[in-house]
Backbone:
């Protein structure tokens, strides 16, 4: 796999996805417009190229960047947009709660959790888009360490590591009434038990939280 392939953006078709939350036993349907999503989580090499920083605990150019907060991911999206001559998707403020998304911008952004799950499922309806050991690094096969992106089979739409390896930040607030500004994480990571590596599993954390099993991938809106 060459470096350019690891930055490929995949065209995701429109559709409808039903999200669910185990904690509240609630489910809701979301219509998803067409968009683009990165084929791989952002690598350490790409993150360093854009930001000049290497925050990860484990070091390797092809490893997913980890140890990055939601706020770090949002700032990366804007920086990459500026480098590529695109309109940044986010209006940044000192207060995390005040960060806004410009829906008309053509720059990079984090996927919504509906977009994330729609892309992860890739037209499938089960818990996973394939046999777990064939598609994901999890506690049972990772030897308790992170792995290079693209080492497992992609889903039907050409997306790698949607489950396992690192959790991925999404744009959405998890539950403002209960958890305030906490943002959604999806996908499971290299240290998680198999049950956590499912298309529907939701986790949450504070937007400044950083840990060695959380990274992100980027999306772009498609002009209608």
Residues:
């Amino acid at each position: 796999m060459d470096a350019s392939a690891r930055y490929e953006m995949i065209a995701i078709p429109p559709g409808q996805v039903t999200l669910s939350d185990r904690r509240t036993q609630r489910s809701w349907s979301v219509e998803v417009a067409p968009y683009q999503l990165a084929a791989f989580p952002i690598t350490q090499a790409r993150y360093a190229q854009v930001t000049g920083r290497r925050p990860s605990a484990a070091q390797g150019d092809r490893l997913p960047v980890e140890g990055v907060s939601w706020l770090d991911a949002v700032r990366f999206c804007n920086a990459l947009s500026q480098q590529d001559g695109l309109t940044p998707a986010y209006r940044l403020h000192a207060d995390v709660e005040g960060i806004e998304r410009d829906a008309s911008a053509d720059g990079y952004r984090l996927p919504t959790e509906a977009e994330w799950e729609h892309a992860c499922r890739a037209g499938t309806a089960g818990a996973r888009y394939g046999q777990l050991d064939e598609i994901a690094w999890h506690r049972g096969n990772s030897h308790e360490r992170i792995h290079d992106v693209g080492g497992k089979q992609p889903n039907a739409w050409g997306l790698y590591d949607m489950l396992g390896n690192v959790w991925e930040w999404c744009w959405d607030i998890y539950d403002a009434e209960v958890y305030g500004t906490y943002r959604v994480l999806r996908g499971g990571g290299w240290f998680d038990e198999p049950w956590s590596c499912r298309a529907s599993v939701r986790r949450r954390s504070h937007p400044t939280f950083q840990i060695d099993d959380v990274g992100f991938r980027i999306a772009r809106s498609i002009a209608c």
Remarks:
- The helical segments are 44-51, 70-83, 113-121, 132-135, 176-179.
